[in-house]
Amino acid sequence: MLLYTCIAARCLDKESCKVMNELEKNNLSMARQYLSYLVGRETTELPEKAPDSP
Known about the structure:
The chain has helices at residues 2-24, 28-38. By secondary structure, it is mainly α. The protein has a domain at 2-38. The N and C termini lie far apart (40 Å). The mean pLDDT is 86.
């Protein structure tokens, strides 16, 4: 079980780095695509900026 957790954490880190790398290059469409691999929802219509918190 510990091995599975370590592998999962490493994969999550690797995939989230792909999102960050594309954001740093201002490549929003590719960042959205990589993000869609991490979350179970549609990401193509996400706003460029997060809405302000209340």
